[in-house]
Design brief:
The complex is a heterodimer of chains A (286) and B (203).
Chain A lengths: L5 E14 L3 E8 L3 E7 L18 E7 L5 E10 L8 H17 L7 H16 L3 H15 L21 E4 L4 E3 L1 H4 L6 E3 L1 H12 L2 H4 L6 H19 L4 H12 L34
Helix pairs in contact in A: 1-2, 1-3, 1-8, 2-3, 3-5, 3-7, 5-7
Chain B lengths: L6 H11 L6 H13 L2 H17 L1 E2 L6 E2 L5 H4 L4 E8 L2 H10 L4 E5 L17 H10 L4 E4 L5 H16 L5 E4 L15 H9 L6
Helix pairs in contact in B: 1-2
Classes of the chains: A alpha+beta (286), B alpha/beta (203).
Bound molecules: zinc ion (2 copies).
């Protein structure tokens, strides 16, 4: 008699693709083992008991049996489906963005409880935040720190002198913001204004609860996004699919309103002067 | 591995291996199976493949695959042209036709919005659906995309696109109930929640 070894895994579904007639191969990030691939048999059948529990971006408790090539999903019980990011194409795209980042940067089987927690909290926040854009940038800054690529925002990325507030030059190659002297030596310097610089510092150092009501002005959004995308692209050495998809979506959004009607639409909200709202969280910055 | 094989066999193996769900081993098995097959069976298969590419067209009204445009469904005067059922794939049309419950027309999107696969709204036949709204006497659109993340996103986008074009057509979504043969206790909360919202009168 063969004994199958079973083990529990608390997982978040990052990616899935169809396999064979009715199976699906899932890429999941687990608290216990980091990124792993598991096969979910029969889940594409409409009567499958497991299917709804292992949709993309769900937080799920899994029972896995050791298989020949990969673990086999034997039971799945959803912990959180983050339903609010499923009724909004823009939020969903940001969820895909952070899942894609984790999938691209992680090696199989290197667990990090902090990464798991950040991923979980960020998916929840993507549903709750006034502006999912802010959550995506928060995730990028925090995640880059966890995997050892923390962008320098408080001291020059090149010569380590303390940085003054005000306009700054961001260089992905140098590893963050550089001082005015070093700015002349980098080839990929991106000028960011004081508001964008403050937002980057704010997101890097605050807890996630603080950012839920932060809404940025369009000009600030653009600079923050450009700096971080450049940084991610530099380390991945390729473009993310979610970024291309989002750009396509933004073109469509000029004619079609993408946000559910009952919710605030950050792209059209005027946050007033600067980049603040809801008690001005940015004002506590040095 | 393929170097020891006659070139026509290797070519066929490569061709099979490009099909979804078929790995190199299955591809070899299929190729050798064909090699042992009686000649006329193998030729029938090659004829079927040729006909597939030569005589299958997209219906210019509903974008289903067909031998003619308009397709049989669109050309059938007994079908209700005031109702259009929007589906992801031609196979979904077949599944719905098998129920015998539906008498309206279809609109085949050829996929669903999927950030993961890089499929955006403009890669699907959504503009074509919006255009049909302008020229056909459509009273109701049934959104019958898959009950998945992508299917739901697609249905939502279509709703927005139609409303953005000023359409006030009646929009419905297939009832998402519990799977037949399933136990309530095993249902996930999304499915159970939807089954509750979409509950119907007991008749
Ligand atoms: Zn410096
Ligand atoms: Zn047709």
């Amino acid at each position: 008699m063969s004994r199958v070894r079973l083990q529990k895994a608390e997982a978040i579904v990052l990616k899935r693709h169809d396999y064979g007639e009715a199976d699906r191969i899932l890429t999941v990030y687990t608290r216990q083992q980091g990124k792993i691939t598991v096969i979910a048999k029969g889940v594409r059948r409409i009567a499958s008991r497991k299917a709804g529990h292992v949709e993309l971006f769900t937080h799920v408790q899994m029972m896995l049996a050791e298989g020949r090539n990969m673990d086999v999903l034997t039971q799945a019980e959803m912990i959180d489906a983050f339903p609010r990011l499923r009724d909004d194409l823009v939020r969903m795209t940001y969820a895909y963005h952070i899942a894609e980042l984790v999938d691209r940067f992680e090696q199989d089987g290197h667990p990090s409880p902090q990464t798991f927690q950040l991923l979980r909290d960020s998916l929840a926040a993507l549903g709750d935040a006034d502006d999912p854009f802010v959550v995506a940038r928060y995730f990028e800054l925090r995640y880059l720190s966890l995997i050892g690529y923390r962008p320098h925002l408080f001291e020059c990325a090149q010569c380590a002198t303390a940085l003054e507030p005000g306009g700054a030059v961001f260089s992905a190659e140098a590893g963050g913001v550089v001082c005015p002297a070093c700015a002349r030596t980098v080839s990929d310097g991106l000028r960011i204004d004081d508001a964008a610089f403050r937002v980057l510092r704010f997101l890097q150092t605050r807890e996630i609860g603080v950012i839920l009501h932060l809404v940025l002005q369009p000009g600030t959004r653009g600079q923050v996004e450009q700096a971080l995308h450049g940084f991610v692209r530099h380390h991945l050495e390729r473009e993310l699919r979610s970024v291309e998809f989002l750009n396509g979506l933004r073109r469509v959004a000029r004619t079609v309103d993408l946000a559910p009607s009952a919710r605030a639409r950050p792209d059209t909200v005027d946050a007033g002067a600067g980049a603040e709202r809801s008690g001005d969280p940015l004002s506590e910055l040095p | 591995m393929s170097s020891a094989l006659p070139r026509p066999v290797a070519r066929l193996i490569d061709a099979f291996a490009r099909l979804p769900g078929i790995g190199p081993k299955t591809a070899s098995r299929l190729a050798f199976h064909l090699l042992r097959m009686p000649d006329d069976h193998a030729l029938q298969l090659s004829e079927a493949l040729r006909a597939l590419k030569e005589s299958v067209v997209h219906c210019q009204r509903c974008y289903n695959i067909a031998e003619t445009s308009p397709c049989e469904v669109c050309a059938d005067p007994s079908r209700d042209s005031g109702t259009v059922c929007v589906v992801e794939e031609p196979l979904d049309v077949i599944a719905l036709e098998r129920t015998g419950e539906y008498k309206g027309l279809y609109h085949v999107l050829h996929g669903a919005i999927s950030p993961v696969d890089g499929i955006g709204p403009t890669d699907l036949r959504i503009d074509e659906l919006v255009r049909r709204m302008g020229v056909e006497p459509i009273r109701e659109i049934i959104l019958a995309t898959n009950p998945s993340l992508e299917g739901d996103a697609t249905a939502m986008f279509i709703e927005r696109a139609l409303r953005a074009n000023g359409s006030e057509v009646r929009l419905t979504r297939l009832a998402r109930g519990l799977p037949v043969g399933g136990d309530i206790e095993y249902a996930d909360e999304v499915t159970l929640g939807r089954a509750m919202t979409g509950r119907s009168e007991v008749r």
